[in-house]
Specification:
Blueprint (H helix, E strand, L loop, with lengths): L1 E6 L5 H10 L5 E8 L6 H7 L4 E3 L2 H6 L2 H8 L4 E4 L8 H6 L4 E5 L13 H10 L4 E8 L9 E8 L6 H23 L1
Parallel strand pairs: 1-2, 1-4, 2-3, 4-5
Antiparallel strand pairs: 5-6, 6-7
Helix pairs in contact: 1-7, 6-7
């Protein structure tokens, strides 16, 4: 039995997409939603899906074993980041080696690193007049967005695309590919 825990910091649309995808899959359970943001809408989505949730602080994540203990309590054996904005500490990476997966809204290694998330990425892509963007699904290591890449998908951009247009194109790729790639690696 594969038991997935999802970390999210915001609305949780990717978490909901993953939950929907795995709802009918045998042998794969979404067992816990974790967030560092007590007002994140992902908590409402967790209630709708009847998935237990856990709110923790940055201090809890970095200076205690509370988060790892909660993952173990739910027997999570893979961790998925879906719009989670905090850096994953070495203690969690060591507890789940090659079992923490993230999705990044750009074609890494471009537009990665600290501060490069969400609309920050899409604004940079447009400002640099890129002809394409996309997603990178990768394992998490100690450095932002530098873990081994598992999968990438591209979308074409036009010179008329706004950052919001790029965001919509990239989000469509996220929804189409992230659950499927998660399934393929577990």
């Amino acid at each position: 039995m594969k038991r997935i825990a999802i970390f999210a910091s915001g609305s949780g649309s990717n978490a909901e997409n993953i939950a929907t995808y795995f709802a009918e899959k045998e042998g794969i359970d979404l067992v816990l939603i974790l967030t560092n943001n007590p007002s994140a809408f992902v908590l409402e989505r967790a209630k709708i899906w009847a998935i237990p949730s856990f709110v923790f602080s940055k201090k809890d994540l970095n200076l205690t074993t509370i988060v790892i203990d909660k993952l173990k309590e739910y027997n999570a054996n893979i961790v998925i980041l879906a719009g989670f904005l905090l850096k994953i500490p070495s203690s969690l990476i060591n507890a789940y080696p090659n079992r923490i997966v993230n999705i990044h809204p750009a074609l890494l290694p471009n537009y990665g690193g600290k501060g490069m998330y969400g609309m920050n990425v899409h604004r940079a892509v447009v400002a640099n007049k890129q002809k394409e963007s996309g997603i990178s699904i990768h394992y998490v290591n100690e450095v932002y967005d530098e873990g081994n890449i598992i999968f990438q998908a591209k979308c074409s951009l036009s010179s008329d695309d706004s950052p919001e247009d790029v965001a919509a194109k990239v989000q469509a790729l996220e929804y189409a590919h992230y659950p499927r790639i998660i399934e393929s690696i577990i």
